[in-house]
Design brief:
single chain; 161 residues; alpha+beta; Ribosomal Protein S5, domain 2; 6 strands; globular
Length: 161
Amino acid sequence: MIIKVPASTANLGPGFDSLGMAVSLYLEVEVLNISDRFQVDHVMPDIPHDENNLIVKTALTVYPGLPPLHLQVKSNIPLAHGLGSSSSAIAAGIELANHFGKLNLSDKEKVKIGAKIEGHSNNIAPTILGGLIVGTEIDNHFDTIKAPLPDFSLGSLCTGI
């Protein structure tokens, strides 16, 4: 089983903390096998390799009956650079719990769980739903709307000046 979730940015000008957008960088979690203990293989510095890993901690929060797993994690999402690396880990943990717990969570339920863990929905919602998301939180109730996002590309031109 492989779980692939995108990075996101919520630093979108005047939409700070209410707008979020998925971007084309990814965290990938491969379940290698059920094991006698949690083992998370990765090459990221200062990230736990055991049940203290955010992916595993999230999965255990959502589904305490999760069996110990051996996971391989690959990511091209830079840590602590405003691209929602923790939201990606949380989303992967929710998906892991959903699969092994046979929870059949809706996307709305996944966003609600992720927002409660993360404390806000601006990164977790686009990570789970994709695209551009407008979100709000009132009295610990999270609401999100997926906004239309036109197909576009960005480029730059160097004039030599």
